[in-house]
Design a protein that fits this description.
The complex is a heterodimer of chains A (about 160) and B (about 600). With about 160 residues, chain A is α+β, with helices and mostly antiparallel strands. Helix content of chain A is about 30%, strand content about 40%. Chain A contains four helices and nine strands; from the N terminus they run βαββαββαββαββ. In chain A, the strands form two sheets. In chain A, strands 5, 6, 7, 8 and 9 form a five-stranded antiparallel β-sheet that branches. In chain A, β2 and β3 form a beta hairpin. The mean pLDDT of chain A is about 90. With about 600 residues, chain B is α/β, with parallel strands linked by helices. In chain B, the strands form five sheets. Chain B has a six-stranded parallel β-sheet with strand order 3-2-4-5-7-6, with helices on both faces. The N and C termini of chain B lie far apart (about 70 Å). Classes of the chains: A alpha+beta (about 160), B alpha/beta (about 600). At the A-B interface, α1 and α2 of A face loops of B.
Chain lengths: ~160, ~600
């Protein structure tokens, strides 16, 4: 089962290596990872998607907490969240099929952000499933290149994953 | 106050109460060694290999309870610390390692003697630092010591580039450490404590299972008080040895792979297992599902990550055992449990921790005599292998911090440098290193350090001309195919000792053991090496094979009793007894 956890960490050199090597050493798999600074420039937020059972997840969260540079770990399993990924997809766009592609892009509320004689580059944000679906629909046209960010999440409502809530 | 980074480092170490550093100089350390040259408050012990420095710092820390400090130069100096730091990490030993690093402009350029020790030690230390700004040095040192000694102790490494220690800074002493992300003191949970006490009170067949955390948490007295007040039999892990006196009536000795048969039977049949500062290591549990199968488990540990890592306890209690155990003690009362103790005593009589007493010079006998002639009061360090297990079985300890061994990592070469650290930390105590003919050769260069420091360490080499433990496994599980374990090609250990300026003795007959031990104890200004030429192919028993169950326990042939067929008392919750009669094999001793 997939779980999304976030770790607030000190924004210091080596922290990403500490976290990723902990996953490697203990044999946990990272499905996706997103790291960015928060509103406090001394703190970074890592969003990590991992797969495993409850017990594995508990160990991951405890082992992360043991790292001196980790300030707080939040497990979003079972919490209502908004989650987003962003993907850029460069798709082959022959003149006779361009309208078809643009309709699909439109349905997904994605955007075409670059055009060449032979390709469109599409930007899409949304849940992992939405991006998977768009990828599936664009595949028959010929995907030249695709890049996805890691998943980021935020709890719905007033709950604050960075504070004490 | 203006001073060099290296001087600020020394000042900061003094503020932490450091009295001794185990180190080895090198190019990247020149500014630091220059500052040490004038320092009268800190003694520097020149080891002969950096691995020795790390183990000596461990031995010092384990014997005294203070933080051990080692110092090595960049590149090979730093990488030579890696084994010792891993050892300290596995056994939760508070050590601060300081390494020199190439100057900051050269970092990442593959400079001479450059190694990324910060990256290398990231997951074998509790925390580590690469100091790039000289002004950070005092804060980093204060944090490193704080992290090393608090919570679950462990090693911390500080990597200091040469230009950082040579820079001039405005030194401000650090009086307080503030780490928002590290809060090692956990408030203990009164409800969990009450639940634990209730479970102990209800138990008919309890076992207290104690580990190294009891010693590093300085909670031996508190644990003994709980055991005595509630009347609980105690078993200990290798790391927990010496937490309770071996001759205490409640003490059943070590459990696990080479533990006493009665300790392991008691765990197999107990209805309540109270784990304190222990981590259910595979050398203790064997097959996890078959370990303490009837027991409700209470797990007390300062490290939340240990709880539920191997066995899920019914009652987890996170916190400092020195504070938690007395709270539990308050809530429990004496219960005779005579059936349980009768059963344990029967096991004690039927399956004694003993060995065949014949004419041979046996390792067990040597260790028994060292234990007896030192009145069980010596600090004992060991290396790793058969001699280590015999020492754990037959040296009878009296005080905490008396038994210093490499448990988690199992590092051959640990014993001699650890003995040096222990003797430096405890100059008035008698220190013995029990080693093997394989292990001693892994750090024998430290004999020179011990001679130079005039340390009267007594080194007993249990010499069976084999890598005995591997040979034992090859004998029992690999059809006696003794692949590369014969060590008959060895130095003359007496001459080796003499070459270093130590005293060398050799014992080949059983009747000469006492004389040699007594002679060694008369030497007070240099180390003594005793080469005990013991019987070559004897095995450590009892033995539960790796990942095995108590039914597979092997014991000495001399044990005549039938192994238990039925459980004493009732299995908990009416479940059927999984530990039935048994195919325990009796082995040639």
């Amino acid at each position: 089962m997939q779980h999304t956890i976030t770790a607030l960490v000190e924004n210091k050199p080596g922290v990403l290596a500490r976290v990723s090597s902990l996953f490697a050493r203990r044999g946990y798999n990272i499905e996706s990872l997103a790291v960015s600074i928060t509103d406090d420039p001394t703190v970074s937020r890592m969003t990590i998607v991992v797969s495993g059972d409850e017990q594995t997840l508990e160990q991951i969260s405890k082992q992360l907490n043991k790292l001196i540079d980790v300030i707080k770990v939040v497990d979003y399993t079972g919490t209502p969240v908004v989650d987003r990924e962003l993907a850029l997809i460069k798709v082959t766009a022959e003149p006779e099929r361009r309208t078809e592609i643009m309709q699909i892009v439109d349905i997904f509320r994605a955007k075409i952000i670059d055009v060449s004689e032979k390709t469109f580059t599409v930007e899409v944000t949304g849940s992992s499933e939405k991006i998977d679906a768009l990828e599936r629909l664009l595949k028959p046209f010929g995907i030249v290149e695709m890049v996805r960010t890691g998943r980021i999440v935020m709890a719905r409502g007033a709950r604050n994953g960075q504070g004490s809530g | 106050m203006k001073m060099k980074g290296a001087e600020a480092l020394i000042e900061s170490l003094k503020r932490e109460g450091v009295e001794v550093i185990f180190g080895y100089p090198g190019g990247a350390l020149l500014p630091i060694y220059d500052a040490l040259f004038d320092c009268e408050d800190i003694r520097h012990i020149l080891v002969r290999h950096e691995q020795g420095a790390a183990h000596a710092a461990e031995g010092y820390a384990k014997a005294t309870g203070r933080v051990g400090v080692c110092l090595a130069t960049s590149g090979p100096g730093a990488t030579n610390l890696v084994t010792g730091l891993t050892d300290a990490y596995m056994d939760s030993v508070p050590v601060v390692a300081i390494t020199g690093q190439v100057a900051t402009p050269y970092i990442g350029k593959d400079a001479f003697q450059e190694a990324d020790i910060f990256g290398i030690t990231m997951h074998i230390t509790k925390h580590n630092y690469l100091v790039k700004n000289p002004e950070d040095l005092p804060r980093v040192v204060a944090e490193a010591f704080y992290i090393a000694r608090t919570g679950r102790p462990g090693p911390v490494l500080i990597d200091i580039p040469r230009d950082v220690s040579a820079a001039t800074i405005d030194y401000e002493p650090v009086t307080q450490v503030q780490l928002r992300s590290y809060k090692p003191t956990v408030e203990e949970h009164p409800r969990q404590i009450a639940k634990a006490a209730e479970l102990i009170q209800q138990s008919e067949r309890p076992i207290l299972y104690i580990g190294g955390g009891v010693i590093s948490g300085n909670a031996s007295a508190e644990v003994l008080e709980l055991a005595e007040k509630a009347n609980l039999p105690v078993v200990y892990t290798l790391m927990g040895k010496s937490a309770v006196p071996d001759d205490h009536p409640l003490c059943l000795g070590m459990l696990g792979m080479h533990g006493s048969a009665y300790a392991n039977y008691a765990v197999a049949y107990c209805d309540t297992l109270i784990a304190i500062g222990a981590r259910f290591d595979d050398r203790v549990t064997g097959k996890v599902d078959a370990f303490a199968p009837h027991a409700k488990i209470i797990h007390i540990d300062i490290d939340p990550a240990e709880i539920g890592k191997v066995k899920i306890p019914l009652v987890p209690v996170v916190g400092d055992c020195k504070r938690i155990v007395p709270e539990i003690t308050k809530l429990v009362s004496y219960k005779p449990r005579s059936e349980w103790f009768d059963q344990i005593n029967r096991w004690r009589q039927e399956f004694p921790l003993d060995y065949p007493h014949n004419e041979e010079l046996r390792a067990e006998y040597v260790i028994e005599r060292i234990s007896a002639l030192t009145n069980g009061e010596a600090i004992v360090t060991t290396d790793v292998g058969q001699h280590q297990m015999w020492a754990a079985q037959f040296f009878k300890c009296k005080f905490p911090r008396q038994f210093i061994t490499s448990g988690g990592l199992g590092t051959m070469g640990f014993g001699l440098p650890a003995a040096i650290g222990a003797q430096i930390g405890c100059p008035d105590r008698e220190v013995w290193c029990i080693s093997g003919d394989g292990s001693i050769q892994m750090c024998s260069q430290e004999l020179m350090t011990a001679v130079q420091c005039r340390l009267p360490i007594r080194i007993a080499i249990i010499n069976n001309e084999f890598l005995g433990m591997v040979r034992q496994w090859q004998e029992l599980f690999w059809n006696r195919r003794y692949s590369h374990v014969e060590l008959a090609a060895a130095p003359d250990f007496v001459k080796l000792a003499e070459a270093y300026g130590a005293v060398g003795l050799r014992v080949e007959q059983r009747e000469d053991v006492d004389t040699a031990i007594k002679r060694a104890r008369e030497v007070t200004d240099v180390p003594v090496v005793i080469d005990f030429r013991v019987a070559r192919e004897i095995n450590v028993f009892p033995m539960i094979p790796s990942g095995g169950t108590i039914e597979q326990m092997k014991v000495h042939q001399m044990i005549s009793a039938e192994l238990p067929k039925a459980i004493a008392g009732q299995p908990s919750n009416g479940e059927t007894n999984a530990v039935q009669a048994t195919s325990t094999s009796k082995e040639k001793s």
